[in-house]
Task: structure prediction
Amino acid sequence: MSAVLNAITLDNILLIVVPIVIILGAFFLGIIVERQGLHRLQAASAKLGWGGADVIINSLKGLILLWFIIGGIFAAILTLPIDNNLFLTIQRGLLVVAIASGTLIVARLSVGFVRYFSETKGAGNLTSLFEMLTQIVIFTFGVLITLQSLGIAITPLLTALGIGGVSLGLAFQSTLTNFLSGLNLATSNKLRVGDFIQLDSGEEGYVVDIAWRHTILQDIRDNMVVVPNTRILNNVFKNYGLPDQEALIILEVGVSYDTDLEQVEQVTLAVAHEVMNQVEGGVPNSDPWIRFKEFGYFAITMTVYLRIREYFDHLVIRHEFIKRLHTRFRHENIPMPFPIKTSLIPMPHEPQQNAKGSAISYDSLPDIPFLNDEQ
Result:
């Protein structure tokens, strides 16, 4: 009798211990495989110099361990004398978790590789809008596959989603319009993250992100400017980042009528070349040029054209060019003109003739305090 009791007790113990051992074994094995596998993958990518391996590593973190745990639980329930219906329920639950993890890894890989190629190859314009769309599409397919695997008909669900989508579109028309406008901006390649734009209403800044409702700008004061996507799409804006980052800036300079224009041209071009090659933000070995523009009422004006690397470099380039040109003009004795207006007042002892030829008496004139030279 005691032997029977011992056998029953041992069987009961084994019935409980074996599944636990299987699950714990799968758990620790998953930790080892994940750590060692990802570590070796990272070492191999470092040797090959391929940055895409980091995307795979970040996508697999935590999921390898989850798959081992799912496998351990499934192997453990095979050792248990449970009801067939309960076994099917647990099996379906594990299937749902497996499909969800697979969907998650596909979403991570998709977004990660798009971001990788966007940053390294310049092949895309990744924004939070694209990231959200990618995740929505992948998770939608994941949910549909899960429902199909559970034996749930998805055709009525798709029909209901279609009708509900139309209703939601009418209810959230403004949000949907901004969403489609943002999608248009992101795919048209007329506006990219990192470009400096200026709206016709005056807002300007670097494009930080194109979200599903707004475009986020960062202005020169490091403030965030939030602009609805429809406002950008339906209005005029200037993109200083296209067709490339380099830009041409224009400076107006006036020189005196008494100067030698050939000397002025040579000195100005020398200073322009000096600024382009020595000041950060200029384009080295570029060819600045000048064009004399017009005879002004106090100076001859000319236009100087300089190339800069990107939009905000015009601040330091203008600053340095004006300083150096002013110093060089003073060194070369080239005068910088300024507006002068001269008023001539005849002296009282010099009588003037009026229109009819008779003399004008200055005694009848009021005393008006004019300056002889007025700037």
Q: What stands out?
A: The longest strand covers residues 247-255. The mean pLDDT is 76. Residues 127 and 210 are 6 Å apart (CA to CA).
